[in-house]
Description:
Helix content is 49%, strand content 11%. It is built from 29 helices and 19 strands. Strands 12-11-10-13-14-15-16-17 form an eight-stranded mixed beta sheet, with helices on both faces. The chain has a six-stranded mixed beta sheet with strand order 1-2-3-4-6-9, with helices on both faces.
Amino acid sequence: MxxxxxxxxxxxxxxxxxxxxxxxxxxxxxxxxxxxxxTAQADDTIRAVVIIGSGRTFVAxxxxxxxxxxxxxxxxxxxTVEKLDQFSKPTVAAIHGTALGGxxxxxxxxxxxxxxxxxxxxxxxxxxxxxxxxxxTQRLPRVVGAAKGLEMMxxxxxxxxxxxxxxxxxxxxxxGDLLEGAVAFARAHADARxxxxxxxxxxxxxxxxxxxxxxxxxxxxxxxxxxPSLIVDLAEMAATQPFQTGWEAExxxxxxxxxxxQSRGLRHIFFAERESAKIPGLSKDTPTTDIRSAGIIxxxxxxxxxxxxxxxxxxxxxxxxxxxEALDRGLGVIRRNYENTAxxxxxxxxxxxxxxxxxxxxxxxxxxxxxxxxxxxxFENMDVKxxxxxxxxxxxxxxxxxxxxxxTLDVNEIASVTGRAENVIGLHFFSxxxxxxxxxxxxxxKTSDSVLATSMALAKKIKKVGVVVGVCDGFVGNRxxxxxxxxxxxxxxxxxxxxxxxxxxxxxGLPMGPFQMSDMAGLDIGYAIRQHQAKVLGQPxxxxxxxxxxxxxxxxxxxxxxxxDYDESRKPRPNAEMTELIDTYRAEKGxxxxxxxxxESTKRLAYSxxxxxxxxxxxxxxxxxxxxxxxxxxxxxxxxxxxxxMQYADEMGLQNVVTDLEKCGQTPAPxxxxxxxxxxxxxxxxxxxxxx
Length: 692
Ligand code: T1G
């Protein structure tokens, strides 16, 4: 069956693109469209052409999976666009769902565009590390002007058809049946001559200042990225050069961006995020329950943040504390968070009241008896959690999901105190829970498929990126960050200054290095974990340089001083006393400090994550290397254009990673060594596992 069906409506030829699920521009689609245009060209009774998407959307863009194809085999979107641009009869793009990337470029090459009001139109290519490569950089600014065109291409965010109509990007909004409206529009414009061609228009507002401002802004918004600057260059060409010049330059710059490690990283994460939602053994038929009410135990920072996620999507929450004062404080924080958002104009005060009305405070856990899900978010102590789950087991209705927000503790042990282990799961939110998108979904040994599937669906509903992980100390993210922290402290012991270690990860694109992050999270948290682990393992009390800093009462930003000093701007400033403390520590340990170059520090830290990630994969705690990448990008600020730690290792070459790990005294995980020896990548490991 052709990917583009041709049907006649009297004097109008309708080309329906049929490539589910999103009508991406896959091989077969350009051929079908060109054939349709040839049909229309050859038949004088056809006065105009309508191009529409079958199913739920117009064309959602080039088929990203074809980016690695040899150029001659890749779908000819540019050729199709050129044919449309030169076509001698009126063409009308009929848009519903999304017209994104190549989809919008296809529409821009048509004579006209009509759309249903709720359709979305955009050029999101920058989010994949590329740029509009089929005329978008030249046509969009010719329709909406330089500033708006730059804003749309650099943000990559779509606009609604109603706004597109105001901008002239859409010629008519169709209220009823889209096809009917498009055919009528085509018929009404069948004799329009000369045909409107965007390529013949000029760009409004393309002053040098506009492009200079854009170049300035991307230094902050897209630090270290390639494609945004290429987009600005091309938009400037659209404003200052003939169309053909910009059109040809666009093809060259597109290839340059597409072949960059940054684009490979962003494309990797695009698919990895979607893959992470697929759980072997679960299918669309796995029964799920509809979560219509939530109970949260603990109104502290985490409990309050978690509650907001439910309130934001209209799910009522009962939040329980043990003391009225703690309850009042918790509610006050939630209200203030919403009011701050309202002050920024991102919601109205009416929205604030609507959300707060869904929140019921309580001092009594019995009030959670009817909740569909209950999430415990109290002090990170196993005995406290066990006590709570014992009570919940007696209170919660049958079938209620009992979730713990623990960040490291054994969910199997927590489940063991209930008579319903199949309903117990870990939902590890990241602080601030109302902001961070990552949700580690901790599958305990007895967690039922239905509870797991319901939790995955809930993650999507509350706009989180849910990744399933197994039970171990720290699950995936925190287990890796502990190793990363060990390595960071070791690099300082050997001679580096904390600020240089942080700079080595800032250079990789992380907004915060290990010590900036520790100071923000609170040094006492890591300190307590190290003390606890030493006690459990019967090891001597830890006495590292960082432990000594904590023992001076310097707990990080929250005490105004940690590894660094902080003024009201919270900008970290090195402290001479701490430098001296570290020097004294090294002397006591008989360490002669050596210079450690930034490149060594970056590799040791990044590879400490990769090595622990390889162990996590071997143990089955994470299903895929791609899942680990999703966790690190959405939970720990790893730059998406690097694709995550595992993708970064693939780019560096696993054999090089093994060599560098051995050089700095880290023992490569067996899986990492095996893949390196076989000349494979983590991506290949994931693909082979998916095929198994
Ligand atoms: N190419 C290939 N596969 C795609 C795809 C695409 N463009 N878009 C989606 N998919 C797959 C996706 O992997 C998933 O697969 C399924 O479709 C459903 O997607 C030349 C170079 C359209 C808003 O960046 O933003 O055009 O997991 O789960 O939540 O200038 O998909 O089912 O196997 O995301 O309803 C520009 C990317 C490309 C749009 C729908 N276009 N897609 O969201 O479904 S570059 C984009 C999206 C380009 C030209 C340039 C979303 C969506 P599976 P989904 P959704």
